[in-house]
Amino acid sequence: MPSLTPTPLSALRISSHHIPPYQNFPNTSLNPYPLLIYHSVFPSSASLSARNVEAHLISVGVVKPAWRYTMYQQHHYHSTAHEFLVVVSGSAQLCFGGSVSPENKGKVLADVKKGDAMLVPAGVGHALLQDKDGGFEMVGSYPTHAERWDMCTGEDGEKGGEEWKRIKGLKWFDRDPIYGDEGPAVDLAKGS
After folding, report:
1. Who's near 190: CB < 8 A, 6+ residues apart?
2. A single Pfam family, by name (predicted)?
């Protein structure tokens, strides 16, 4: 299995998004960390596969791959762990922020493709809007120190409840899931 070499940090394009709360979705309001999109963090070549993405993530040791799948069409968030997603095939339009409603002014609509990655802080609502070519798949991972991950759907009772309290207490990354001792997640931890 060929090993993956990420795009050099000096050439990596990052999108950073602070998303205000919307209805029962806290988004990034409970901690200072934004949604990060790593554009083309891996070259979109034939050698990019779920297996070698998982091997790369395991070798860095910051997150543990948990699944291979698309993204649910139901808006949801996690309260027990931050999530790291790497697109391994296809392309899609995703919504971050809890709803595509025109009233949700802070939502982020993102077009992602093979080779992109997303660091989704706990609390950020996300859902698949469109699988553009019918083959969209990601590797989903969670921090190695996370015991489990949950799925919250913005139900009444979540807002201000245990789920929101857990999010406030979650530890951020000391190392970046792709680059290790440097990289976007580390820069956020240092406040740069």
Report:
1. none
2. Cupin_1
Look at the pTM and tell me if it is higher than 0.85.
yes
Task: Note down pLDDT in tens along the chain; length 192 residues.
Answer: 567 899 999 999 999 999 999 999 999 999 999 999 999 999 877 789 999 999 999 999 999 999 999 999 999 999 999 999 999 999 999 999 999 999 999 999 999 999 999 999 999 999 999 999 999 999 999 999 887 889 999 998 888 889 999 999 999 999 999 999 999 999 987 775
Please name the residues in contact with 62: beta carbons below 8 A apart, sequence gap of 6 or more. Answer: 143, 144, 173, 175, 176, 177, 180, 185
Nearest to 173 by CA among 34, 72, 30, 19: 34
Residue with tokens 């469109």: 130
Q: Are 183 and 92 in contact (CB under 8 A)?
A: no
Residue 2 in domain: no
Spatial separation of the C-alpha atoms in residues 154 and 23, rounded to whole Å = 8
For the chain, what is the domain count? Answer: 1
Q: Residue 20 maps to which CATH number?
A: 2.60.120
Beta strands in the chain (DSSP E): 13-17, 35-39, 63-69, 83-89, 91-96, 108-113, 117-120, 126-131, 137-143
